[in-house]
Amino acid sequence: MNESTYIRPRGPLTRLLVGVLAFSIAALAQAGVPPLPTLAPPDGLGVNIHFTHAKPGELEMIRAAGFKWVRMDFTWAATEKVKGKYDFSPYDQLLADLDKHGMHALLILDYGNPLYADPGETMPITHRAGTDEFRNAYAKWAAAAVKHFAGRGCIWEIWNEPNIKNFWAPAPSAAEYVALAKAATSAIHEAAPGEPLIGPACSGINLVFLAACFQGGLLKDWSAVSVHPYRQNDPGTVAADYARLRNLIKLYEPAGKPIISSEWGYSTSWKGFDEGKQAKYLKTEFSTNIVSGIPLSIWYDWRDDGVTLDDPEHRFGLVRHDYHAGGSPVFDPKPAYDAMKEFAGEMAAGSK
Fold it and tell me: What three-state secondary structure class fits 228?
């Protein structure tokens, strides 16, 4: 595969993609772990969002693109503002709205809490993550959250990108993350057995950090291993990385565990990129993931986070930033949005 081509799933190829993914789901069912929800194509396609209350017409537009999943931060600081008291009502609203559209949520249990922080500490609020107080409070909160939404078809992710400083300060620590995740998974499995947990939402496919997680016993607690395979070249290059990760998983879990691509996209402000290339790479990314047996793939991001053209963080979206109340559509689609609709339609037709 090269940068001028992408996999275009039609006819026999579409059936091949469906068959490969169905096989991976069957393998999971035999692994003796809490099951993932049904993810047969085209059900295993999702997109990252940054809201609990959708704007009118927004979820309709996401669903019309062919997405069955959204990935969203389930924020500790926003849901425990008094020690030991939890308010999950914003997520009650999100789940109710998703239910109306036949969609599901992958929810990230993240980012620390000022109640258990050093004075003046700012996000990611993890300077005290190595303390018993922080771990125990996080585990108690996480268990309460998962129990509250048990049976709703959610997937729960233990943190986001703990292997980089942006999300684990003052510096990433595999040992601290493993201890935190072990405490949380133990509490969650006791409070809500059968709810699927995944992790570590690794930035890139960092085999050193992942090996530390597996050595710490986390692989036995998770239904799948989640990674964020960002790169600025052809998405097809990820296949070799997945193969290396699968080999590592089998060293610790011979029966294997699925790999989930829980965040991955392309910014149109990167050098050498434009909206046409983003659209092409979206199709290649999803196709490559399906051929590689990845049961759930989440595109980053739903809408542009801002309007600054040269800020990469503002240019990952499938639609533009500005909302048009009462409009049709309510967001201006980029070529990648139309590419997603086409891809999802082809996958749906191939699954029949």
Answer: strand
Name the token pair of 350: 């191939």
Q: What is the pTM of this model?
A: 0.91
CATH number at residue 111: 3.20.20.80
Torsion of CA 75, 76, 81, 83, to 10 degrees: 170
- The pair of structure tokens assigned to 252 is 């610790």
Euclidean distance between CA atoms 110 and 87, whole angstroms: 15
Which among 161, 178, 179 has a CA at the least distance from the CA of 123? Answer: 161
Asked, for residue 4, whether it belongs to a domain, the answer is no
CB atoms closer than 10 angstroms to residue 226: 27
Q: How far apart are CA 230 and CA 203, in angstroms?
A: 8
**How many domains are there within the chain?**
1
Which residues, other chains included, contact 37 with Cβ-Cβ below 8 Å and sequence gap of 6+? 104, 153, 155, 196
**CA–CA gap between residue 188 and residue 197 (Å, rounded):** 9
β-strands 319-323, 331-333: how paired? Answer: antiparallel
Residue 28 has pLDDT above 90, yes or no: no
Within a 13 Å sphere around the CA of 95, how many CA atoms are in the beta-carbon half?
A: 19
In a domain, 226, yes or no: yes
Range of the domain at 228: 12-350
Do residues 98 and 71 lie in contact, with contact meaning Cβ atoms separated by under 8 Å?
no
Q: Classify 296 as helix, strand or coil.
A: coil
CA distance 67 to 61: 9
What single DSSP character describes residue 57? T
Residue 5, domain member (yes or no): no
CA–CA separation, 194 and 188 (whole Å): 9
C-alpha–C-alpha distance, residues 173 and 176, integer Å: 5
Model pLDDT for residues 232-278, shown as the tens digit of each residue: 999 999 999 999 999 999 999 999 999 999 999 999 999 999 999 99
Q: Which one, of 213, 233, 223, 191, lies nearest residue 28 by Cα? A: 223
